[in-house]
User: Which sequence fits this backbone?
């Protein structure tokens, strides 16, 4: 009887347990059970579900958090998995809340096809781990710098005046990390200097961690999506956040409008009476919205095309907030293309050997194109992306070769 029955299961996930509910494809509740969140528990849950019938689909809450292990176990056993949103709060208030109820609600959501999403690829977790560690290091470094400054405010006058001459935080940290507290006789001075030295050495350690983690993020994002990483204004941190939001399996995004809504960059109508306008969205993934915001600000400051566009919009009477909303929406459209249709990027590694083979200096190239020599050097090393300049540079080198021949 059960071999011909088609069932749908829902999973309410927690740190130590998962609760499953099984319903038929007509919505009849069959059974529910609780299992441990370990490989043995996952296998027991799958065997329990299959004992009730053929598992058509499984709806799991939190496929990227508490439900990550169970999601991978289901996929390894060729069971289709979808991510379900948590139950509506108004429904919870009417029906109550418990693990069996939440699991049953997840199963019914799968059957109804409402509020479902494709789970993210497990490889997204690698980026998330590196990004969390890097941001934690930056946060701890900022806190340590503020603690040093607070300690020096109330330090003895002689100590305060000695370190006041360091105008930059970098120089101050370097000086404190190499100071000798025991060379002083005043116990207060010794204690304050010892604390500041410990904090300064902690800052240097965190800075090394930041550099190492940034290099790992740069390498991983460049490998996963070189076109995204090469886009103007997209650094390792920003690229990693966009990949985490979208998932490395970007086919889960239905359209660029859906991605804009996910990233909180979709225009929200804010019209009333004779006023017709849109405003910035306050929903979506705020970390992804922050990534788009940073790209927009960087392009606004340094990208000539963006600066020309903003100047035209300001002349047309738009406010800076409206222009920023338009920029973020356009950037979301561009990022969606990079995320869903990765493409190879131009390799600049041939430029430097070709220039050196003709004994042409960086200054000569820079003077010809009207840029700084450092810009040409960064372009040759792949530290700066400018496909137009690279193409013109390559054609110019070929002309120099023909003239030399």
Assistant:
């Amino acid at each position: 009887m059960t071999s011909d029955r088609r069932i749908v299961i829902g999973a309410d996930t927690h740190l130590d347990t998962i609760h499953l509910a099984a319903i038929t494809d007509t919505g009849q509740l069959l059974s529910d059970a609780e299992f441990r969140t370990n490989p043995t528990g996952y296998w027991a849950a799958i065997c329990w579900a299959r004992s009730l019938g053929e598992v058509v689909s499984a709806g799991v809450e939190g496929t990227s958090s508490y439900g990550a292990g169970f999601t991978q176990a289901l996929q390894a056993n060729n069971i289709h998995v979808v991510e379900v949103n948590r139950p509506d709060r108004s429904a919870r208030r009417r029906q109550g809340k418990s693990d069996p109820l939440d699991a049953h609600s997840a199963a019914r959501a799968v059957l109804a096809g409402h509020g479902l999403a494709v789970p993210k690829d497990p490889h997204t977790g690698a980026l998330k781990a590196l990004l969390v560690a890097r941001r934690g290091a930056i946060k701890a470094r900022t806190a340590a710098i503020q603690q040093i400054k607070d300690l020096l405010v109330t330090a003895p006058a002689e100590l305060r005046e000695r370190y006041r001459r360091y105008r930059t935080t970098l120089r101050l940290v370097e000086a404190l990390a190499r100071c000798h507290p025991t060379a002083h006789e005043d116990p207060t001075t010794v204690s304050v200097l010892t604390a500041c030295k410990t904090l300064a050495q902690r800052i240097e350690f965190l800075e090394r961690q930041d550099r190492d983690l940034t290099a790992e993020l740069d390498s991983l994002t460049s490998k996963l999506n070189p076109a995204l990483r090469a886009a103007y204004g997209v650094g390792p941190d920003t690229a990693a956040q966009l990949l985490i939001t979208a998932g490395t399996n970007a086919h889960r995004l239905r359209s660029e409008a859906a991605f804009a809504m996910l990233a909180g960059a979709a225009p929200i109508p804010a019209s009333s009476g004779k006023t017709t306008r849109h405003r910035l969205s306050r929903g979506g993934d705020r970390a992804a919205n922050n990534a788009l915001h940073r790209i927009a600000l960087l392009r606004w400051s340094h990208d000539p095309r963006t600066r020309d566009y903003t100047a035209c919009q300001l002349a047309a009477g738009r406010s800076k907030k409206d222009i920023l909303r338009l920029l973020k929406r356009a950037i979301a459209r561009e990022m969606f293309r990079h995320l869903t249709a990765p493409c190879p990027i131009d390799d600049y590694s041939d430029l430097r050997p070709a220039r050196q083979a003709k004994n042409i200096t960086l200054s000569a190239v820079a003077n010809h194109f009207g840029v700084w020599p450092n810009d040409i050097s960064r372009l040759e090393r792949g530290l700066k992306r400018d496909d137009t300049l690279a193409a013109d540079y390559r054609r110019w080198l070929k002309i120099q070769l023909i003239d030399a021949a």
Strands lie at 6-13, 17-24, 29-36, 54-60, 81-84, 116-117, 268-269, 278-279. The domain at 2-117 is CATH 3.30.420.40 (Nucleotidyltransferase; domain 5).
